[in-house]
Amino acid sequence: MTPASPPYRTRRTVKPPQMDPSREVSEALLREILEDAHWAPTHGLTQPWRFHVFAGAARARLAEGLVSIHDRIVPESPAKAEKREKMRGAALTAPVAVAVLAYVEPEATRKISEREEIEAAACAVQNLMLSAHGHGLGSFWATPPAACAPEFAAWLGLDAHHLPLGMVYLGYPKPGIAATSARVPLDERVTFHR
What are the residue ranges in the chain where pLDDT is below 70? Predict the structure, then answer.
């Protein structure tokens, strides 16, 4: 009997259009997933991750907020309107949207580098996505400019020490959605020094 693949090998990106908008994600399940995220490694136990969760009607406010920021900070281009509508659609389609930020202490009192705090928050996102997968949810980490801008932290009511790292969208995959992926051979990404 072959053992089941670990969740980090079977988790795949499920984008909001592939999520079932009719299936609500319970707050109890969200709390469990966020608790799993909260156990990410963190240098100095600073636990720098911050999560702002949008579900139900709050997703429409999020969509409008992101679009407003997008319109202010993204230069005019042929792709601007398309990216704007794609970002709005993601916020409105996915049953849950989680804004992810890293809190970085002011430089005068900082003991852990900004880079390490961002890396710890990224580890928390990995935990979040693996936990969601383990509960049958799909996830998609999106980093459009509007969701990674200081203006987004301000829109959330946060100060400049909160660094936005994007949005994680969560939802149950639609029936028949089988996300797949492939990896190059490991030896193309690893160098052993002996």
Answer: 1-10, 179
